[in-house]
Each structure stands twice: as C-alpha cells, then as structure tokens.
C-alpha cells in the first residue's frame, strides 16, 4: 500500500509536470534545426550547456506575411521588410556551467566577416556572419518554391534552413557546440517588452537618433515597448556604433531577467504561462529544450552570475563592397574555448586541419615570387597531397576549383584561403583541387588582416569594449 502510494504520487507528479509542460508549450513554434548540426562541433567534457540567442531582423510574421506597414513605422520605427530581410542582427552565445557557477556570454558582432556554412556543412562563402541565415533562407525558398511548396509551409522550411546555417556557422566560428537555441524577431521583442513594460534602463549620456527613434536622457529611466525597441536598435550617434548597440542588448537582457526574477515569474508556472501565451507566436525554441527545466535554472542567471562580453574585432575593412568587421578566427575560437572551459574538448576545425584527402595544385596569379610554392607547402602540412605549381597572368581574386570527389576538400581549402566559394572545374582531374592565387591572397598561416578604425566608426581596432555584468540595471552608452 505504501509502495503504491509512493508510486502513485510519483505518477501524479510526473503527470502534473507533463501537463504543465504541455500547457506551457502548446502553440509554441519549435525547430529541429539542431539535429542537422549536432555532432559537427567538439563535444562537451561535462554537462554544461551552450545556449545561442538569435535575434532575427525580420519584419514578417511566422507565415512570411509582411507586418502592417503603419505598425512597423510607428511602433517598431523600422523600414520595410526588404531592409532587414532575414539577417540575424543579434547573436549571443551563453555558457551555463555544469553544477552552477558564473555564466559566460559572448555577443558576436553582426558584421563580423567570416566563412558561413549551410546546415549540411557546405560552404556558402565569406560574408557578414549575420547573412548566413538569409543566404540559406533564399536558397531553400527558391528550391522549395520550384517544387511547388507554398504559403506557410514554404516559409517554415526556408526559415529552418536559415536556422541550420546560423547554428553551423556559429559552431565553426566559435569552436564550441550549441545545445539549445532561441530565436525571436522584431515583433517578438516588441511583444515581450510590451508584457514587461515599463522596463528600467540606464544610460551614461543622453542620446537622440532619428533612425531608431531613440530619444533618451542620461541616467536611470523607464521605457515602454516602443522605446525599449529603439534602445536596443540604436547604433547611429554612438561612439562605437554596432559594438555599443551590442552592449545595449546585453544590458536589456540583464534588466529583463532581473525584472522577471523580481516579479516571481520564473518560479510561477501560471505567470510563466501568461508570458508565453503572449510571445509564443513570435518565438522559436529548439524541440529538445525543456522550458520548465530552464525556468528552474533561470534565477541562477541573475544576481551577477552572468558576464556579457563582446568578441573582439581586428579592425574594419571592405569586402564584397560592404563595410565589415575583420576578425581573427583562431583568436575567436581560443577566447571562447578558454572562457567556456572547453580547451580540452577542442577538435580540429574545418579551417585548421585537413578532413578530406585531395591532391592540390597551386597556380600563382598573385604576382609575388614563390607564392604558389609557399601556399602549397602550407596546405601539405594540413594533410593534403602535393600536386603541381605554376604561374599565370595576375588576377584580382583567388579561386578554388575541384574535380570529382574533391568537393569537401575544396570547400575547406577555400575557407582556409578566404577564397569565397569553391566551384567545380570541368578540366580538373578527379581527386584534385586547383587553387589559383589572386592579388587578394595572403599566406594562410598569417593572422587575419587588421586595419585601423575608419574615421566614421569611432571604434578602436581590436576593442571589444567593457563587459556588462548582469544582476540589475547596467548603465551603458
């Protein structure tokens, strides 16, 4: 009888938990995108959790319909859906240690110039990291539309490809695995802010910006939803531009988590239900994320237990006729792995060690004496077989062409040499990769190009700025 009573209580408890979980997540959009990239990054050495927060700069709803124009202009103070498209303007990677402890979080500046991937690991090319989602979305949208897929199904499949690409790209960029992710668009942010308003923020200086609609005094103040969106979107008029906007976003997350804790939301299923009922139409969570478990852990993310950093840049430059942040990929991986305690789990990344056999031929179209031999020598050290070297007329850009069976090696080599997207070469022998060096070629063992800050940016090169500590209302620029 006693045993039955204990068992019954356990069953009732499990049933109540299941019911609460089902009630909480009913109607929530979930994603299986992690399944496509799981296992393609170094494994954890413990039970820690890496969480990626994705802020999508889209002016569309979940079905791909444009948000009402008047609403976008007056409340979101944003332009048409063509402006933001499907770029990820916010990428924040958080590391929650096993058994508790200080949470480390890194914001990835949206204009970091990096090798972007699709969910299957194939290389898109070198773009701003925010464009990985948009590039994959566009490719998938065109493919599925040609197959006759329409409406909400077309939008859902295309966005899933975007999520897979973002997850794959961030895993490669940082060198650590992603266990869970959450995605929210502009409307979702607005809806969350509307539930929580007024939201307390603190500014070191007064600001006014017609682009975002920001118009705030210095000091502590309370914002409504429209003002909160302007607070996190402003970049014009700030000394460090996008980097200062990144710290605004970090401060906002700190404020919101502190506010939710103070209001007792994390510990109250009914209050949590009320919040989710409002925002679930705009938020996407990975399908393996147990929201109730996270709600129990969430209070640990307040009280000063989270430190937000911004990944450093090496300077500014122009790539693909766009202003970009220049970064050192290996430095980025080293910083993140060290902070996340993942140095022991590091495995060779696609940019450092050969993962697919191929014979490499290098042709010098760079003009520098001995460039082909130097490039081939560095690639042989990675495990590729040495082919022939030669010379050709000087060309502007480095290209990578491959023969049958060498696509994976070619994609990896293109990433190593910052050479854009590898392409098939009809005249290239099977198992071979032909690299033609251009004027843009730099030795693959050299660090990423650096540059001084442009006069308009006001941001010093390689400066990630001060960390933002959670646990209250941080004061930021």
- SS element count, helices: 14
Largest sheet: number of strands, sense, barrel closure: 8 strands, mixed
Helix content: 25-40%
Radius of gyration: 24 Å
* Main structural class: alpha/beta
Q: Distance between the terminal alpha carbons, to the nearest Å?
A: 65 Å
Strand line-up across the major sheet: 1-12-7-2-3-4-13-21
Uncertain runs with pLDDT below 50, 5 residues or more?
A: 1-21, 343-354, 446-463
Instruction: Report the average pLDDT across residues.
Output: 77
Q: How many distinct beta strands?
A: 22
Task: Give the CA-based shape.
Answer: globular
How much β-strand is present in the residues? 15-25%
What does this structure look like?
There is one protein chain. By secondary structure, the protein is an alpha/beta fold. The protein is built from 14 helices and 22 strands. The strands form six sheets. It has an eight-stranded mixed β-sheet, with helices on both faces. It has a five-stranded mixed β-sheet with strand order 17-16-20-18-19, with helices on one face. Strand 5 and strand 6 (123-128) form a beta hairpin. The termini are far apart. The relative contact order is 0.14.
């Amino acid at each position: 009888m006693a045993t039955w009573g204990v068992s019954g209580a356990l069953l009732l408890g499990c049933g109540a938990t299941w019911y609460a979980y089902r009630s909480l997540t009913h109607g929530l959009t979930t994603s299986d995108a992690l399944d496509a990239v799981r296992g393609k990054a170094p494994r954890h050495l413990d039970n820690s959790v890496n969480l990626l927060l994705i802020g999508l700069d889209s002016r569309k709803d979940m079905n791909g319909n444009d948000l009402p124009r008047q609403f976008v202009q007056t409340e979101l103070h944003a332009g048409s859906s063509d402006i933001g498209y499907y770029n990820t303007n916010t990428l924040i990677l958080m590391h929650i240690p096993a058994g508790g402890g200080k949470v480390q979080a890194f914001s990835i500046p949206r204009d970091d110039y990096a090798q972007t991937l699709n969910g299957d690991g194939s290389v898109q090319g070198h773009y701003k990291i925010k464009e990985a989602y948009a590039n994959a979305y566009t490719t998938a949208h065109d493919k599925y539309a040609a197959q006759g897929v329409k409406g909400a199904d077309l939008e859902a499949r295309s966005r899933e490809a975007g999520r897979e690409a973002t997850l794959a790209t961030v895993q490669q960029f940082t060198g650590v695995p992603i266990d869970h992710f959450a995605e929210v668009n502009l409307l979702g942010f607005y809806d969350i802010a509307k539930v929580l308003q007024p939201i307390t923020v603190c500014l070191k200086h007064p600001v006014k910006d017609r682009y975002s609609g920001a118009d705030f005094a210095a000091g502590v103040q309370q914002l409504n939803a429209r003002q909160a969106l302007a607070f996190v979107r402003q970049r014009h008029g700030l000394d460090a531009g996008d980097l200062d906007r990144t710290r605004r976003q970090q401060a906002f997350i700190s404020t919101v988590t502190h506010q939710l804790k103070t209001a007792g939301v994390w510990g109250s299923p009914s209050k949590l239900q009320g919040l989710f009922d409002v925002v679930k139409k705009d938020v996407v969570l990975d399908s393996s994320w147990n929201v109730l478990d996270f709600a129990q852990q969430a209070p640990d993310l307040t009280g000063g237990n989270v430190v937000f950093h911004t990944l450093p840049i090496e300077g500014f430059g122009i790539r693909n006729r766009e202003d970009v942040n220049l970064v050192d990929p290996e430095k980025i991986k080293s910083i993140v792995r060290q902070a996340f305690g993942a140095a022991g789990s590091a495995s060779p990344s696609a940019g450092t060690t050969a993962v697919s056999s191929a014979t490499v031929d290098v042709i010098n179209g760079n003009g520098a004496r001995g460039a082909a031999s130097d490039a081939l020598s560095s690639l042989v050290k990675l495990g590729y077989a040495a082919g022939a070297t030669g010379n050709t007329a000087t060309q502007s850009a480095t290209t990578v062409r491959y023969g049958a069976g060498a696509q994976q090696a070619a994609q990896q080599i293109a990433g190593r040499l910052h050479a854009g997207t590898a392409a098939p070469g009809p005249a290239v022998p099977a198992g071979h990769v032909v690299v033609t060096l251009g004027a843009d070629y730099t030795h693959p063992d050299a660090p990423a190009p650096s540059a001084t800050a442009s006069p308009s940016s006001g941001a010093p090169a390689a400066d990630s700025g001060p960390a933002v500590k959670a646990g209250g209302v941080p004061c930021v620029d």
